[in-house]
Every structure is written in C-alpha cells, then in structure tokens.
Design goal:
This protein has six helices and five strands. It is mainly alpha-helical. The strands form two sheets. The protein has a three-stranded antiparallel β-sheet with strand order 1-5-2. A two-stranded antiparallel ribbon has the order 3-4. Helix 2 packs across helix 5 and helix 3 packs across helix 4. Mean pLDDT is about 85; it is low at about 1-25.
C-alpha cells in the first residue's frame, strides 16, 4: 500500500491523529503547551523549521529562501526560539563583518503530542506548507502520490494509526546514509464523505 507523498513539511506531526494527541497509554511524550502548539500552527513557521532542519541558517538566509521580509521572518524566528523549536547557534561574522546568529531546528515538535483543540489550525498550516512546497517543484512527477479508498472499522483504523506512527518514528530516527538527499513524508487520512 503506497500512501506517501514526498514533501518538505518539517517534523511537526499532526496532519492525522496518529502523530499527536492520540489517547495512547504507550505514548509518554509531554503534551505541548498552548504557546508551543500555537508556535507550530503557522505555515511560515513550519517552513522555517524545515529550512533549518539540517543546516543552521541566519534570519537573513531564511528570509531569502522564503522570499519574505527579514523583519517579519525575525518575528517568527523569535517565537520558535522562545518555544524551543529553534536553537540559536554560535554567533558568526557575515560577509561584511556583521554579527549573524544562525538557527537550527531542535526537532522538538516530534517529541511532543498536541491536544485535539489545536488539530484544526495545525492541519491547515501543514496543508498550506505542503501546497507551497510542492508548487516549487519544476516537475510534478517528483511528488510520489498514491490515493486509496478504504473502509475501516474502529479496530482496523487504530491498527493503521499504530503502524503508521511506528513507521514515522522509525524514519525519524533513521541516520542518513552517504549522499542522502532531503525528502519529507506527508500522509493524510480523512473521512470520505462522498462515499457515505
């Protein structure tokens, strides 16, 4: 069964319940605070986390990659730093000797679960990010897309969530091999209202 869509969404896990907030006795991740949940319920902030996932970037570099105003980006960067999703790295000198602070994503979002009250905002932000990042690809065939209609009872749905969560956790802990390229995985499962 192919359910993957290659993308760059950042390791904020919410688009389906399998990643966050699921009442799971085996899930000992701490519950995100309101400030933490609101910090990652933003398409811009999710893109910033993705950009800083593998390489520390300065506010100027982030703004350039987003095609955004550096002052606006700095507001978002500060919110992510304040909530622990970005960490300031050692200060460095820029091209003209200016003081620059690079930021690196902490992967904290993967270590939290998010309450159900935040799911709608987080899902909307993830969908916006997915659409904007896929739109950047010159060739749509670079997106590995599959679609499948299912009928699952509650037990089957829970088993699907458990297995998918296990796969995501396995992939999140995978050490990149030599020459590894950046990919992201975006999976969505939703009620199919047309088939009721």
């Amino acid at each position: 069964m192919r359910l993957s869509i290659t993308n760059q969404l950042g390791k904020v896990n919410r688009s389906c319940r399998y990643d966050e907030g699921v009442a799971d006795a085996n899930d000992d991740r701490p519950l995100a605070t309101e400030a933490e949940a609101k910090a990652v319920a933003s398409a811009v902030r999710l893109r910033i986390l993705r950009l800083c996932l593998d390489k520390a970037l300065t506010n100027k570099e982030i703004a350039e990659r987003l095609g955004a105003n550096p002052a606006t980006v700095l507001h978002h960067v500060r919110k992510l730093v304040d909530t622990g999703f970005l960490a300031a790295q050692e200060e460095r000198s820029g091209a003209r000797g200016a003081r620059e602070i690079p930021y690196l994503a902490t992967r904290k979002s993967w270590r939290l679960k998010f309450g159900e009250q935040y799911w709608s905002d987080m899902t909307g932000a993830m969908l916006q990010v997915f659409q904007s990042e896929v739109a950047q690809l010159a060739d749509p065939s670079q997106v590995n897309v599959s679609r499948l209609g299912l009928r699952l009872d509650e037990e089957q749905y829970e088993e699907f969530e458990r297995r998918l969560k296990g796969l995501f956790n396995e992939l999140a802990n995978l050490e990149p091999g030599p020459g590894a390229k950046p990919y992201s995985l975006f999976v969505a499962i939703h009620p199919d209202l047309d088939r009721e």
